Amino acid sequence: MDGVRTGITKRPGCIVDRTIGATLDITHSRRHRNRDLPGSTRLQCAAPAAHSAGATRRVLVAALNAAGTASGQGGQVARPRALPDILTLDPRESHRKETQVNHFDRTAVRRVVGRRTLLVATLLGLAAGCSGSAPTRDARGTARAGTLVPAPRVQMATSPELAALERDLRIRIARDTAGEVAVALMDLRTSRRLGINHDVSMHAASTMKVPVLLELYRQADLGRLSVHDSITVINSFTSIADGSRYTLDSDGRTNLIARLGTQMPLREIAHWMITVSSNLATNILIDYLRADSVQRLMASLGAQDMVVLRGVSDDPAFAAGMNNTTTAAALARVMEVIARCEVHSRAACDDMMQILTEQQFRSEIPAGLPAGTRVGNKTGSITRILHDAAIVVPPGRGPYVLVVLTRGAASSQAATAVAVDISRRVWEELAR
């Protein structure tokens, strides 16, 4: 069977189109980033894409039919009913020299006999590698092999020690603010929490750009890309509603549109996405990383209520109600992951925090803090929506995360004022 060509070119995301037997080589139809696997097995794939079990089964069946024909066995193989989830590449196993195909854990493939069945296990393992694996990390932030698994939803019940603060915030919210206000507070030094309407879902506006930042640096930690890689500045995107193409007419302070067709480092694009909330930069990164990859990361953090479906200005999707949404609790969880450096390398966490501290929109949470306080934040606003999420670092104490979401306030000035007052009162309570 060594040297069999499959000729398969249609699996979404990753394409099997190389010699099978001596070496397995999977290439992606759009991206050209490498991810090395143990032994001689080679995998090239983009940001993890959602592959259906049916699509993967079709790949395996076609590959086995091709292998069977080439080895003189002929005939069609039976369609697998389901994809076993116990088969994973194990880097501790040695690889077979005569075929240069990696072994799998023998306890997981005890029924594997012969080269033909070994090929099934190998393809399953590679398919899993293209479906969204990511590193988990120990307490020191060291990457180790793992898979993104949905985590329990973050909880934000108010700690008894913060009951008086919650009462004060509720009084302030009720005083002159029409509409809804949601608050989530995490004191990272003491693990105390406070929540007011923290599980109410609202349009995320530009706060959804922070999850995109997390996914960019996660993939950099995986070695799938470097934030210093350059990509082409584009302005043509696909609507998730009907598949139509759309463009952005302008991009505010960045003038990225004037640089269409040129190359720009990923970090610079991410910087504009956060610091001046560039919508074009956001869409470029979502097109590159894929929204479903961002969403899987959110679910793995317990922030599944931060829903990132699409880029900005996708009018058909907006009309269909397909919007990015969040709760205060989920957004606070996203900021906590950066502040505690739970998922990424220390270098990645420091760089993300640095980008957040260079934020140019500072009229909400930062405005309620003493001058000179280190704070990294991300705002978001559309019609009758105004949000802010911040990591605040008081001198001489651990940081805290504060999120204030507003919807339907009497005016943008009223929404801004309540965010400033909440920020000031929280500072008085925690930084004293």
Description:
The chain is of the alpha+beta class and 432 residues long. Helices cover 33% and strands 17% of the residues. It has eleven helices and 19 strands. Helix 3 (163-176) packs antiparallel against helix 11 and helix 4 crosses helix 7 (291-300). It is globular and about 55 Å long. The model is unreliable at 1-146 (pLDDT under 50).
Number of helices: 11
Helix content: 25-40%
The rounded distance between the terminal residues' Cα atoms is: 72 Å
- Mean pLDDT, nearest integer? 77
Task: Tell me the β content.
Answer: 15-25%
Main sheet strand line-up = 10-9-19-18-17
**Structural class from helices and strands?**
alpha+beta
Cα-atom Rg, whole angstroms? 24 Å
List the secondary-structure elements in sequence, H or E: EEEEEEHHEEHEEEHEEEEHHHHEHHEEEH
Could you name the ranges where pLDDT drops below 50 across 5 or more consecutive residues? 1-146
The general outline is globular
Overall strand count: 19
Largest sheet: 5 strands, antiparallel
